Structure formats: structure tokens, C-alpha cells
Amino acid sequence: MGPKLATEHGGGALCGSMEGTLLAQGYDFEYLTTREEFSFWRCSCGGTFLHPRPAPTALPTIYPENYYSYNFQDKLGPLVMRFKSLTERAKVAAYTPYLRPQARVLDIGCGDGHVLRQLDDNYSPPLDLEGVEFSEHGVAATQSLGYRVHVGPIEEVELPEAAFDLVIMNQLIEHVRDPKAVLRKIARALAPGGHLFIETPNIDSLDARLFRKRYWGGYHLPRHFHLFDTVSLGRIVEESGLRTISQKPLVCPQFWIISVQNWLKDRGATKLAEWISPFNPLLLAPATVIELIHQRVSWTSNQQVVAQAASSAQGKS
After folding, report:
1. Sign of the C-alpha dihedral, residues 103, 104, 106, 110?
2. pTM over 0.85, yes/no
3. The CATH number of the domain where 253 resides is what?
4. CA separation for the pair 1, 222 (Å, rounded)
5. Domain that holds residue 120
6. Radius of gyration over every alpha carbon of the chain, rounded to an integer in angstroms
7. For the chain, first and last CA: distance in Å?
């Protein structure tokens, strides 16, 4: 059992209220940094929030050295690495229409710098690439690739105004304490005509409903502080000085696998849970098929919003 964590009050991302209906309870099934139980609450405004949640002093504990975004290369076998490379290239292809030569790009929560590296490898002419990262491991890895890193949580990092042509928040908004304040900071940091890409779990996806009470992989306890459905994500974007350009479902087979893995771990089936891994190519393939089929008829495990600063969007209308 891990150490007892320092905690603080949580609240709804849209309204700030600590009032809500209990949605789910669980612990850190994935990394076992603590066996304390944490609870997600559904607010009347549509947001879902963790309360209580780890305090800032607990961040080094809940993001251990082996955290997945710090060392992709070490964790993935050749087949899974190939799958990951294809998905990252698809993301880069989605960014390309919004880029220009020497565009200034910021990846918030850049981890080991893998997205910046993909942009560097697959876009020509060169881009001005930067990241934001608070962990020592992620900062060191990204700097070793030659990229500038703004060190610290995004809530504390000072960003220049009207500076960035593209800001990327892949699996990040759900980790921050005050999503609306962070989005407002990004709105100020976007250059005229600049775009923000947000990728985050969808709390109303099929897998989220099936594993609602405890095991859903998108909970990522206790690191996810806020979760959104399509309506609440669109609303918080609009209330933060941004305008939604597009919103769509994204395929995320890993959440299906992690949900089953969490269920097994909670029942003591440790050996089987080690095999039921999001890094197992034998499981990634069928889980991907499930997500692709589901994507054709409904919203999947993840969602993406592309937004602009409201002033830029209005200027184009």
C-alpha cells in the first residue's frame, strides 16, 4: 500500500460547486501509488469531478517514474510501437492544415516529447516546437530531444500572449485543477488565427457506462480531476474565450483493456491482469475494432475539440 496522500477539495469545472451525485469510487489500480479510495461526483452543471483530490504536494507520488507518458519507448514492444507510431502520425496529419512554416507550436503536458518529435519528423519546413511539463523525467526526456520546455504545471507556467499558432492538449485538461482558468490562459496565448486541439476522455461513452461504478479506464484514479461529456466539454470551451471549430469522437482501445484489467486487479487476479494489458497487441487489435465500429454510430472513449480564440473566430465570420 502506498503512502497516505495530502488531499484538497475538488469542485465542478463549470460552476465550482462541491455539490454533486456520487458516480464512482476506486483507487489507483494502474500504478498502486496509493490504496486510498477516491470518488467521482456528477455536478448538476454537467461536469464530473474528483473530490477530494490529491493536493499539489502529492503530484510526485501519483506520477511515478514509470508513468506511461514518460517512457513510451521502454514500455512498448515492436508491434505496439508500430500501432502507436501510426496513431501519432494520424494526429500529426490532423494538425498539418493548421500549420505554416516556422509556426510556433506548444504541447502542454508533453511527457517525453514524443508528439513534438513526431511533428519534427513529419512536417517540413521546420516548426518552432515547445512543451510544458512538470515532471523531472518528462522535462529531461524532452530537453534531450532538443526542445524548449516550460517547466511546471500549466496552472503555474507563464505563457506569452498572442504567441502560439497551435496549442496541443492531448489527455491533459482532465488532469488540471481549474480547466476553465487554463483554457482562458491558452486563449490569451493563441496567436491571431491560432488553434487549440483538445483530446480528453468521454464520460458518456459505451465503455464508461459499462464500467461506470468503479473500473472505467478513463477514471485513471487519482490523476484525473475532471471528466467531460460532449456537451460539458463544448460548454467549457465556449465559456473560456474560445470558439469550437469542430468536435468529434476518437478511437481509444486502451480504455476498454484497462477497464477489464482494473476489474481483475480488484479481484486479486494479478497474473491474468498482467496479461490483460493495454500494451498487449493481441488485445489492442480486437479492442480497436470495437472502437472503430462504435465510432460509426456513436461517441467513443475519447473526444477531440478544435477551437480558436473567440476574437479570431469572430474575425473570420
Report:
1. positive
2. yes
3. 3.40.50.150
4. 15
5. 7-316
6. 19
7. 56
